[in-house]
Specification:
Two copies of one chain form a homodimer. By secondary structure, chain A is of the alpha/beta class. Chain A is built from nine helices and 14 strands. A seven-stranded mixed beta sheet of chain A has the order 2-10-9-8-5-3-4, with helices on both faces. In chain A, helix 4 links the parallel strand 3 and strand 4.
Chain lengths: 360, 360
């Protein structure tokens, strides 16, 4: 096994090596203060500075307008599936959802527990192999928002342009936040689990337009109200300190790499290389329709499940880890987030070609 | 500043140095697998083994009966304040609460949002300087459970014996879990944020009797149902992997030190040394009544707020950090959890005596 393998895991996922090295140092002795990072009180001036810098970097890198709050919460994207309707929909209210995969379906389920989800589109009948065009659905005039998953981790599909509607957008960007430039203004809420493009598991970033903070019904518990966290700078209770710190390190790295625009170009090139290799042969078939292909998660099949199992096993032996597709569609999935190195993509392509020569 | 200071912070708090050293190594390269701990998929066999070992150690060290589930959740103890009534109380149902401090009050507030909290006792009129005796309150026969905070971090008080009632007990043990032997059988739920006696911030341990998992009303969202997490071994969604891993390291350390019984003896001795120093002079006044004194958080006052500020500042210069009392009662607080070294207690006592000689 080499010193460092290529980790194609969909999340938790590969992180920049310099981030890991810095975390290793700080965990034992933060800034040479004689105290470890994870021992610092969240109210200490040292940790407050870490949290403030992380938020400021995220605002800068995503160009977050001043009338949005940036929150660092816990409970993963899955908790947001419930918090969004709890905060934005009272009983009898509705919102429109686009069903483009497992995570959209889960969000729809929670919206229906709390209020009413109008599912305007579903690609379930075609194994979620595409996302809809603008003309494929209509948004109910009574909907409070239009909800969509910008990138579908499991199926390897991605919205290349965002829905256009007079309703505000709400989006789960867990698997493509910070991977491409976005305009935040059409959005009421953007949220993302950290463990793909931003850092380790354990924190969820929520970007929320300020005027939405006062809508929450009185019946919603304190910790599930966005305003609770917005009013206290995500410090109402003890936050997930280590995850916030590590996100800050990843954002510093991202800034040094040239910011979101530079990463977007690199991501486009990495994905294009891999899709070219897929398209160059009939031995490999991409799962996603061409106009819905994800830059983050590249999903494909080999001629048989047996060959796929062999591919995954032989890849692992070559230090190409985490290539097994999600159980719901099987096959192969290569997750190549911001921090995934170009050389790993080239190595995978080389292995794909070699594997075809031997087994095609 | 010495290589390592003494950190009296109430949480996040001091951790064993060997835990920090191991985490620093694993974060860069876990078990020499060529992948960092925080990059591991939560579904990888490597991380699954970490999570299983952590749960097994917690069960062993706390002697958790087989009919209890051990969950690793997110959102802190504050989220449990709501989840407990959401799962155990339907509308119109009630539970009895003992109001022994800020965290009990917060739990009462959430119970009243969801159902009905019967507050059977409050020590608020005496600045929460004690916890009640058994004879000080009665539990409403219609209550579903009796809720109490076993150790009150802010005020430095602790239940030395637990309430006896035919109702099941529910307890927030955030600040004294694993610090003393307990009998789990009278409890329906025990919960604790990790960041005091167990590890870093970012995970909450919930120990719940299995028969309680089926009580939750249908209106409660998926992530807020205990059964969701119990059925999936805390892996329904991506768990707080780093926090679970670090708790595992702390538990290994605790086992090596002789387990909970051995730690209880050490904690008793550390606290006794400090209380003896407090009782030996009129210059220092303990906040908690003698029969309610906490082994974890020792709270005291000096003759004036000015002397207290000077004490905190001079202590910091000597490497005694985190001694400032909570803003709600002021004064001094020394938090001396499991991992806090005896030598740090001796150094604090030496400093107290020296400070009195100069300023008394």
């Amino acid at each position: 096994m080499p010193d460092r393998i290529y980790n194609f895991s969909p999340g938790p996922a590969t992180l920049p090596q310099e981030v890991l090295a810095q975390a290793a140092k700080d965990i034992v002795n933060f800034n040479d203060k004689g105290i470890g990072l994870i021992e610092l009180s969240h109210r200490s001036k040292e940790f407050m500075a870490v949290a403030e810098e992380t938020e400021a970097l995220l605002r800068e890198l995503l160009n977050v307008p001043d009338n949005y709050k940036v929150l660092f919460l816990q409970g993963g994207a899955s908790t947001q599936f419930a918090m969004i309707p709890m905060n934005l929909l009272g009983p009898g209210k509705k919102a429109t959802y686009l069903n483009t995969g497992t995570w959209a379906k889960k969000a729809i389920k929670e919206a229906n527990i709390i209020a009413n989800a109008d599912v305007a589109y579903s690609s379930e009948d075609s194994s979620f192999n595409h996302v809809p065009d603008q003309s494929d659905y209509t948004v109910d005039p009574e909907s409070e928002y239009l909800y969509f998953v910008s990138n579908n981790t499991i199926y390897g599909t991605q919205f290349h342009s965002f829905p256009e509607t007079d309703k505000m957008l709400v989006s789960d960007m867990s698997s493509d936040i910070l991977s491409r430039r976005i305009d935040i203004k059409p959005f009421g809420i953007i949220f993302a689990g950290a463990q793909k493009n931003m850092g380790p598991a354990g924190a969820t970033v929520v970007i929320i337009r300020e005027d939405l903070l006062d809508r929450t019904p009185d019946s919603i518990p304190t910790m599930l109200r966005y305003k609770t966290h917005a009013d206290k700078g995500s410090m109402f209770n003890t936050p997930p300190c280590f995850a916030i710190y590590a996100i800050g390190l990843v954002l510093k790295w991202l800034k040094k790499m040239g910011g979101v625009s530079a990463l977007e170009e690199m991501n486009r090139e990495k994905a294009a290389l891999l899709y070219q290799a897929i398209d160059a042969t009939d031995f490999i078939k991409g799962h996603a329709q061409e106009n819905s292909r994800s830059m983050m998660n590249i999903t494909f099949n080999l001629p048989s499940p047996e060959l796929e199992a062999q591919f995954i096993q032989e890849g692992l032996a070559k230090g190409l880890d985490g290539l097994k597709g999600h159980r719901s569609i099987g096959g192969i999935r290569a997750s190549i987030y911001n921090a995934f190195p170009r050389q790993g993509v080239l190595d995978l392509i080389g292995f794909m070609q070699e594997f075809e020569q031997k087994n095609g």
